[in-house]
Amino acid sequence: MVELKESITYAVIIAAAGQSKRFSSRKTVEHEEQFDSGVASAKKPYAKLQGKPIWLYSTEKFARRTDVKQIILVVSPEDVSWFRDYFAFDIDRLLLVVISGGLERVDSVQKALKIVRDDIDYVVVHDAARPCTTDQQITDVFNTAKRHGAAILATPIVGTVKSVESGVIKLTVPRAGLWEAQTPQVFRRQILLDAYATQKDDGAVPTDDAELVEKAGFNVSIVPADKSNLKITTQSDLSFAEAILANKK
Fold it and tell me: Which domain holds residue 145?
């Protein structure tokens, strides 16, 4: 159990450096015309949802919290200059730090970790493409991380899961105890630093930060969420996100 202090501080790393291959492979004219730069329309964090860029939804929620003292937004190296120029107003008003990412997600988070302020207690990692995360979900995962040191949002898997090779089912996987990881993922700063410091160069690329923390020997608590905290992956997800956001108004 982690000893609590009166004022806990957080740094939030917003991961927006992916190439969005599944999203951009089905671009529409509507999204092509949203920005002055052709590169932007092809990437999901920059696509507009109800008139606002996807990345801005969750970033604004974190920025409203008084316990969040630093927000680092990680974008692809080729987008940094354009992003800083195009979103200059939002960067200034939200006091964002914008940096370039690495080859893999873990590389991007590790780069952001290096500039997290020394006075920060907990580090939050969140997908820029999850615009529907609620204030309550953020509070719940923050509080659980404060009690246990590490916590993530997740939803239990309810459908039947198949292991497939070359289009053929090889195994039906028992779903008991299986959860789908989401973000935000929140870690005591030193836990995440230790996890990255002990990362093995074995060729296996971790799919999220919780996996690194698990492999380093730390327990990660689950905070139940639901599928409304979806991650935009394809163009068709935009309509689902719009419905979710409209329902939450």
Answer: 10-154+183-248
Report pTM: 0.89
Average per-residue pLDDT for the chain:
89
C-alpha–C-alpha distance, residues 24 and 35, integer Å: 14
Cβ 120 vs Cβ 12: under 8 Å: no
What is the torsional sign of CA 101, 104, 105, 110?
Answer: negative
- Please tell me whether residue 93 adopts helix, strand or coil conformation: helix
Within a domain: 163: no
CATH number reported for the structural domain that contains residue 81 in this entry: 3.90.550.10
**Rounded-to-integer distance, Cα 249 and Cα 231, Å:** 19
- What DSSP designation does 104 have? S
* Tens digits of residue pLDDT in 79-129: 999 999 999 999 999 999 999 999 899 999 999 999 999 999 999 999 999
Establish if 4 belongs to a structural domain. no
Say if 190 falls within a structural domain: yes
Q: How many CB atoms lie within 10 A of CB 181?
A: 17
The contacts of residue 247 (CB under 8 Å, 6+ apart) are: none
DSSP state of 113: H
Please say whether the beta carbons of 208 and 109 come within 8 A.
no
Query: Which SS3 state, helix, strand or coil, does residue 127 take?
Result: strand
Are the C-beta atoms of residues 149 and 218 closer than 8 Å to each other? yes
Residue 120 maps to a domain: yes
pLDDT of amino acid 201? 72
Task: Count structural domains, the chain.
Answer: 1
> pLDDT value at position 6?
63
